[in-house]
Amino acid sequence: SSFNKERAVGLDWRPYEEFWFTSDKGRKIHSWLVYPPNFKAEEKYPLVLFIHGGPHSSSMDSGHVRWSPQLLASEGYVVLMTDYTGSVGYGEKFAQAIQEDPLVTPGKELHQAVDEAVKRYPFIDGKRVAASGASYGGHLVNWLQATSDRFVCLIGHAGLVSLEGQWTTSDSVYHRELNNGGLPWENPEIWREQSPHTYAGNFKTPMMLTIGEKDYRVPLNQTLAAWTYLQRQGVPGKLLVYHQANHWIMAGPDAKHFWGEVHAWLAKYLKPPKQGSEPLSEIVHPCA
User: Fold this and answer.
1) 276 band by pLDDT with thresholds 50, 70 and 90
2) What domain range includes position 249?
3) What is the 3-state secondary structure (H, E, C) of 260-280?
4) If pLDDT is split at 50, 70 and 90, which confidence band does 43 have?
5) How many CA atoms lie within 13 A of 49 on its CB side?
6) The domain spanning residue 225 has which CATH number?
7) How does pLDDT run across 135-193, given as a tens digit for each residue?
8) pLDDT for the residue 153
9) d(C-alpha 172, C-alpha 167), whole Å
10) Residue-wise DSSP of 178-238
């Protein structure tokens, strides 16, 4: 298609760069690096880890209205996309290896990917790193919140905070049972030990949460629960509820508002501070 070809010609879209590393479990892990406009290798850039959903999906060198890596990078960030265990395109064994290990190993691989990117690319500022993700990527953002303090800030869309809580309210239950090794009463260890809410007392990283009120895959209750954990412990946060959106924020006005909030949140924590201060937390109900 040549739709919007004239407008796209003027955009500074650099080709993605790929790299591989070997995980602690000996798996070959693929990543993409996305560059911002007017990129200069001699400068230092914040890094934004963008985690794909699925988990049986993969990161691609393309854009999409739901989550655009180019748009994420456009405000001066290098974006890292990593195909963690469970991603597709690397053989059935790799895709199914996430079963009975839904969050721990993928989380470790994401940390390894950040370490590898910082080591390989001197233009990445390893002290200014954020993480973002939607759907299963949102699950992993909540897992990173629960198990790590390396990130300056986090952005999670439609992420579960309780494996069992999402399973009991979602329109899709079988895949959760499969990846968790059975029903909660059949394999309770995984359901508890790999659920972010188990470690909610560790939540400390500033976090923006977004959700569509009509999301039936990862219902609103999961985002509200994560919000409560943040608020109860005084963690700086922002909650965005899109009343007409479902699992994805697709409508033009919603998407425009969403991306404005994403860039404002990242700028607040990844760019030099400006005069003035903002409230500790804020709830926004856009596009009512």
Assistant:
1) very low
2) 12-284
3) HHHHHHHHHHHCCCCCCCCCC
4) very high
5) 32
6) 3.40.50.1820
7) 999 999 999 999 999 999 999 999 999 888 878 787 676 677 777 788 989 888 888 89
8) 98
9) 8
10) HHTTS-TTTSHHHHHHT-GGGGGGG--S-EEEEEETT-SSS-HHHHHHHHHHHHHTT--EE
Tell me, yes or no, whether 7 lies in a domain: no
Question: What's the predicted TM-score (pTM) here?
Answer: 0.88
Helices marked H in the chain: 5-9, 69-73, 92-96, 104-120, 136-147, 163-167, 174-179, 188-193, 220-232, 252-270
C-alpha 137/C-alpha 78 separation (Å) is 18
Residue 27 covered by a domain: yes
pLDDT of residue 156: 96
Burial of 130 (0-12, 13-18, 19+ CB in 10 A): buried
Which residues have a catalytic role annotated? 135, 215, 247
For 42, the token pair is: 């001699």
Residue 56 confidence (pLDDT) above 80: no
Q: Grade residue 277 by pLDDT with cuts at 50, 70 and 90.
A: very low
- Residue among 52, 115, 114 nearest 86 (CA): 52
| 16 secondary structure, DSSP code | P
Q: Which two tokens stand for residue 20?
A: 């591989």
On the question of pLDDT at 224 being above 80, the answer is yes
Taking the mean position of all CA atoms in its chain, how far away is CA 132? Answer: 3
Given a cut of 60, whether residue 36 has pLDDT beyond it is yes
Q: Helix, strand or coil for residue 241?
A: strand
The answer to whether residue 5 sits within a structural domain is: no
What is the domain count for the chain?
1
User: Mean pLDDT across the chain, nearest whole number?
Assistant: 87
How far apart, in whole angstroms, are the C-alpha atoms of residue 102 and residue 141? 13
- Of 96, 90, 111, 146, nearest to 24 by C-alpha is 111
Specify if 4 maps to a domain.
no
Tell which residue, 230, 180, 229, 203, has the closest CA to residue 55: 180
